[in-house]
Each structure stands twice: as C-alpha cells, then as structure tokens.
Design a protein that fits this description.
Elements lengths: L3 E6 L8 E6 L7 E10 L2 H7 L16 E8 L11 E4 L2 E3 L5 H4 L11 E2 L18 E5 L4 E2 L15 H11 L7 E5 L3 H12 L3 E6 L5 H7 L3 E4 L5 H4 L4 E6 L7 H5 L2 E9 L10 H5 L4 E4 L5 H14 L5 E5 L3 H9 L6 E5 L1 H4 L1
Parallel strand pairs: 10-11, 10-13, 11-12, 13-14, 14-15, 16-17
Antiparallel strand pairs: 1-2, 3-4, 3-8, 3-17, 4-5, 5-9, 6-7
The structure holds NADP nicotinamide-adenine-dinucleotide phosphate and zinc ion (2 copies).
C-alpha cells in the first residue's frame, strides 16, 4: 500500500476541515503501519482545531481515538504482526526514561509525551492524527483490541474511555460510594458506565432534563438537572466523588459545594479556566484534582476491563465529510454519545 495518505485537515481556527493528503513514513525499527478503520471525534479535537488552548499547529489533522489493523511491521517488531486489531490513543511516544514513563504513566512524561496530532515527533516533524486512512507508530504505543469488542464502538475508548477510567481507579472509587458524573457527553457517558461497573452509586448532573432517560439506561441510579441551580442547594454536601467532564466554562465552586466532608472532585474537562474559591475547599476539607488520559499499560487494562464487563461506547457513525456538521452538533451537546468516523469512505 502507498504511504500517500488521504486525510482531512484544518488550516486555520476559522476554516472548516477539508480534504488533504499527507505522507506517512515507512515503518522504521520498532514501528508499525496501521490501516485506520474508525476514529472517534473528541471535544479536544474541536478545542485544538479552533485553537482554544492557544498552541495549535496548522495544518492540523485531528483524531486520537484510532482503531485499525496492522498492515506492515518494521524491523525488530516483536509485539505485533500483520492483521492484528489495534488501537492508538492520544500519545504516540514519550521520553521513556523519566520517572513517569518508567512508572507506565507516559502521559505525565517530564519531557512531554508526543501527542498523536499537534505534537512533535522525535525527528522534529509535526504529528498528524486519525482523520486519515493510516498511521505509522512505535509498537510500544499501540494497544490490542480484545476479540470480544467491536471496532467502531471501541474507538472512543482510546480517549473518552481511558480518561474516565483512569481517575475513577486512581482515586479509589469503590462500591457504595456516591459518585456524580458532571456532563453527559463522550467522556461523561463512559464515566457512568465505569463508575457503575466499579460498584458506585452513580448520579448524572446534566444541564437540562433532556438526557434523563438516556442516563438511567446507561446505568445511572439518579439524575439531576443543574439548569435552574436549585440542586446546588438541595443536594449540598452529599457526594463522595465528582468527575467533571464539562467542555465549556462553568462555576466549579457550585459543584464543589456538592461534596461531603473529605469529598473529592476530579476535573477532566478542559474549558477556559474558572476561579476556585478557597472557601469551597476549606469548609469541608474538600480536594480538587485533575487527570490526563492514562498510560499505555492502563489503557490496555481498561480495554480488557471493557471486554470482561461488556462495555463499549454509544456511538453515531459518520462519514469524514460530515465532520464540520459533527463539530457544530457537539457544541450544542447534541451527540449520543460519540461521533465515530468510518474511514472506509476516504479510502474509496
Ligand atoms: P462532549 O462530548 O462535547 O461533552 C461535553 C459535555 O459537557 C456536554 O455533553 C454537556 O453535557 C456538558 N456541557 C457543555 N457545555 C456546558 C455548559 N456550558 N455548562 C455545563 N455543562 C456543559 O465532550 P467530551 O469529548 O466528553 O470532552 C469533554 C471535555 O474533556 C473537553 O473539554 C475535552 O477537551 C476534555 N478532555 C480531557 C481529557 C483529559 O485527558 N483530561 C481527555 C479528553 C477530553 P450535558 O448535556 O449533560 O450538560
Ligand atoms: Zn480526546
Ligand atoms: Zn518521560
């Protein structure tokens, strides 16, 4: 297969994504070439595409929820063979020698891990993501898709899945804990499934009543619409743990007030910064933390957990040319609950 690769790229924050083409490198030592079947659409793609974090590099090919099959292996590749069903998430490399990398938490690499797109590869070139038909990656940043999992509905696990699984595990969510998932989007709906599978009592906090039925179907025990603000009084000091997945600016202090004594809120959504009042924390010895995706080993653990518990994402398949419309719908919280691009159309 040729290394010339059809893709969709964005050239400035105000333009739509459009057809583009790039050259993937021949898999070198320890590298594999993957033909991409599906790629999930993360809200981070939109933040990056529109330069909402201020460090976007154009042209950009977003996409970091990649699943596909190995089509070629470079020399010295021991872990993979042609035909293996694999995934690539938000990182394609890291320094591999710092304490975080040695601990298997490459996302916190001291030198900064190499993002799958909008990153700098070891040779200094810009990385391009999964809105494309193939990708060359080092074998160590590839994970195996268990046979029990379908390819399309597994793609978003590579970011939305691991980003919610990791903090729930790290901060010790246990049976009986009262857990709130704030925002029912791509990340949020996976947070509900994981927290439930870990035995917690799960409440969804969503802006309106619109998603109540879905939340209960996804496994939530309770549902609170936050729109008129009254729940912040009626449910004050009730939660052990909150996972905040919201993509737009919102008042963190209001949510912190929902935590009990020693309760903890973990932020994974990355909107513009919002001020946190010291009072929100000190009054009940509450903690506020953040969490970034998860390491490669934990990503594999999460996929295996999904296979064992029958967990996949709720998805809506789109074609590559629908991506701009998909971004607009994502901004209106009109996704149930993750868009996944079928790359077959781009290969034709
Ligand atoms: P998404 O599918 O668009 O979901 C975001 C949800 O936030 C919406 O469905 C909505 O839920 C809620 N929301 C939106 N605007 C809101 C507002 N003004 N006030 C309150 N709630 C609002 O996005 P996603 O892909 O899940 O990503 C969510 C965030 O996580 C993004 O900022 C993304 O960049 C970030 N992220 C972080 C990591 C990490 O490693 N930390 C990894 C991936 C993504 P309701 O309709 O239920 O209210
Ligand atoms: Zn993502
Ligand atoms: Zn490192």
């Amino acid at each position: 297969m040729s290394l010339t690769t059809p893709a969709y790229a964005i050239h400035s924050p105000t333009q739509p994504l459009e057809p583009w083409s790039l050259e993937r490198r021949e898999p070198g030592e320890g590298e594999v070439l993957i033909e991409i079947d599906f790629c999930g659409v993360c809200h981070s793609d939109l933040h990056f595409a529109r330069n909402e974090w201020g460090f976007s590099i154009y042209p950009m090919v977003p996409g970091h929820e990649i699943v596909g099959r190995i089509t070629r292996v470079g020399s010295g590749v021991s872990k993979w063979k042609e035909g293996d069903r694999v995934g690539v998430g938000c990182m394609v490399d890291s320094c591999r020698t710092c304490p975080s990398c040695l601990a298997g938490e490459e996302q916190y690499c001291d030198s900064g891990s190499t993002f799958t797109y909008n990153g700098k590869e070891k040779d200094g070139s810009v990385s391009y993501g999964g809105y494309s038909t193939q990708i060359t990656v080092t074998q160590d940043f590839v994970v195996r898709i268990p046979d029990a999992l379908p390819m399309d509905a597994t793609a978003p696990l590579l970011c939305a899945g691991i980003t919610t699984y990791s903090p729930l595990r790290h901060f010790g969510v246990k049976p009986g804990m009262k857990v709130g998932i704030v925002g029912l989007g791509g990340l949020g709906h996976m947070g509900v499934k994981f927290a439930k599978a870990m035995g917690a009592h799960v409440t969804v906090l969503s802006q309106s009543e619109r998603k109540r039925e879905d939340a209960l179907r996804l496994g939530a025990d309770d549902y609170l619409a936050t729109g008129d603000g009254s729940v912040f009084e009626t449910h004050a000091s009730q939660f052990d743990f909150l996972l905040d997945t919201v993509s737009a600016p919102h008042d963190l202090n209001a949510y912190l007030g929902l935590l009990k004594l020693d309760g903890q809120m973990v932020v994974v959504g990355i909107p513009d910064p919002t001020p946190v009042s010291a009072f929100s924390l000190v009054l009940k010895r509450r903690s506020l933390s953040g969490s970034l995706i998860g390491g490669i080993r934990e990503t594999q653990e999460m996929l295996d957990f999904c296979a064992e518990h029958g967990i996949v994402c709720d998805i809506e398949i789109i074609q590559m040319e629908q991506i701009n419309e998909a971004y607009e719908r994502m901004l209106k919280s009109d996704v149930r609950y993750r868009f996944v691009i079928d790359l077959a159309g781009l290969k034709a």
